[in-house]
Fold each of these.
Amino acid sequence: MTGYMGNKDDLLKRLRRAEGQVRGIARMVEDDQYCIDVLTQVSAATKALETVALSLLSDHLNHCVAEASAEGGPVAEEKLREANDAIARLVRS
Amino acid sequence: MTGYMGNKDDLLKRLRRAEGQVRGIARMVEDDQYCIDVLTQVSAATKALETVALSLLSDHLNHCVAEASAEGGPVAEEKLREANDAIARLVRS
Amino acid sequence: MTGYMGNKDDLLKRLRRAEGQVRGIARMVEDDQYCIDVLTQVSAATKALETVALSLLSDHLNHCVAEASAEGGPVAEEKLREANDAIARLVRS
Amino acid sequence: MTGYMGNKDDLLKRLRRAEGQVRGIARMVEDDQYCIDVLTQVSAATKALETVALSLLSDHLNHCVAEASAEGGPVAEEKLREANDAIARLVRS
């Protein structure tokens, strides 16, 4: 069971769009398009991935972490530690 | 002429790798892989795009902005304004 | 009860250090110090505040959110929603 | 001469406000205020410092880097390298 189970179609749609954005950026570079226009698209793709990450994290907290916390014990602690590490990676990336 | 001309092959290689990373993330979601493992890959892809952006920006400053500044006048001002806007978008994304 | 209760002294120490860093940056500007040196200190103060935020968030998840999840019900949902919003603000700032 | 010379009063005003924000956060922690409310203020202070950084960087590019580029030579190269490093620190912080 994954936390994002109820959200899978939306996630896949967003990821395919982000993949298309990155492919589009490569095409812009191949076509020697203007640096600033390429950069604008890189910022947009980065923001799209950030939205995917926040959605995954929210589903994870709402399902996996909440359920583990309801059970308590070392599994709950491990889930919380993992979630905090993932948040730190996101904030610092 | 683009600022990244001398760096095009490296940029394209990085962008194709980032595209592959995003496609790999979609596959992980299709296969119901663990949220935290998916998130780790999203952070890695975001960092890869950030490196592309910093490389594009550096080439742009070193070539387009530096040359426009050497000429001076309204074109230089416009290039600087554009570069500052792109930096703000990056820092805030 | 706050999530950071067991961590208060460390948080206060970090916040006072961050306050001193920001005051030091103002002094650098008053003394007309070199832009890049001022910027380096602004990045350091930003990173210090980010560390404070990650510490607060981790304490909040480990205590407030975990306890509310153990109880379940609408309070748990509200805590999770709040935490997700705070994470989104952090990732986007 | 600093790039931010024409902007010093505004910078100092922003820095003093940011210093007050950080001091206010310490007071909130002393008073055991709710984690999420403290976090909201930390995000606000971080954004304030980010705005200071973007303003410093823009002044630096518009003055120091533009003038050095107009002169050319190794000083221009050094200024561009420094600016790119400062941008990378900002984007990654």
Amino acid sequence: MGTYHELEMITVLALLEYTILGIMVGRARQTYGVEAPATTGNPDFERYFRVHENTLEALIVFIPAVWIFALEVNYHFAVALGALFLIARIIYASGYLSAANKRSAGALATAAINAILLLGTMIG
Amino acid sequence: MGTYHELEMITVLALLEYTILGIMVGRARQTYGVEAPATTGNPDFERYFRVHENTLEALIVFIPAVWIFALEVNYHFAVALGALFLIARIIYASGYLSAANKRSAGALATAAINAILLLGTMIG
Amino acid sequence: MGTYHELEMITVLALLEYTILGIMVGRARQTYGVEAPATTGNPDFERYFRVHENTLEALIVFIPAVWIFALEVNYHFAVALGALFLIARIIYASGYLSAANKRSAGALATAAINAILLLGTMIG
């Protein structure tokens, strides 16, 4: 697998981003006094929770799709889209955590990247 | 990977189904007036939300399991089970979105497919 | 793929654990009278629900990370960490299902395993 180092690194970095967002949910539990097992009841906590969950919802598509795209369409384009995914998630998280109505730009960027990966593989 | 085209296509189609279900959640937010970050409060919206989430819960099992089954047990049987998974998710979504108590058939079909993939690999 | 049998088995066992936790959510729905699509309203049910969801949140990291670690760092160490992941999830589930404040040990063990997989790959 020595030839796939860049895409392995993109995958690991995407999972690290997601892990950091999960740690932020744990801290938000304490900040806003939302005790487990509750995940609702405080809109500020809920934004942290949804940022993490939405990133999970994006990763289940991104990880298989970026690898199939890399193998079947174009490896270097897959790595470039993967780098954009990492950036799109930072835009999404920082937007959503500042205000719920500022989540659209990062969400659309993520959706566009995943759509290119899926549709690009179907056409290719 | 040229020999795995059918299973790559099944994987991409399953992720496309899931993406469409996610777009339907976004539309249901507007239809039923459920503003982010809330995911509860309107049972009609919650059915759209749960269809999407339950499909995520199924995909985390299906994707690794269908590939390991394909490599270790039987590739063509894996592709056939994959095609059934795509259909089972349509049955599940259309049932659940018509009424919460009509979700069982599609849910059981999905569970059966994933169980065959997991137990088939353990026996094989 | 004949050389990866142990790690395939770890992956399948992790998905089986997760499937069993999902079946327990279905039973808890009936025990505590929480009708779909609701996932909140009864704290006892919510603990079952969160055990399942949190395991999904862990698996999206664990599965890609343990495979990349196996390929790039050390296969046998990956299998050993995978076996610990299976145990950590049992500790987490049995702790959390007995009381919400007993979820920390299993959660920390899971987080530590996933962190070793991700950071070990980045360093290696």
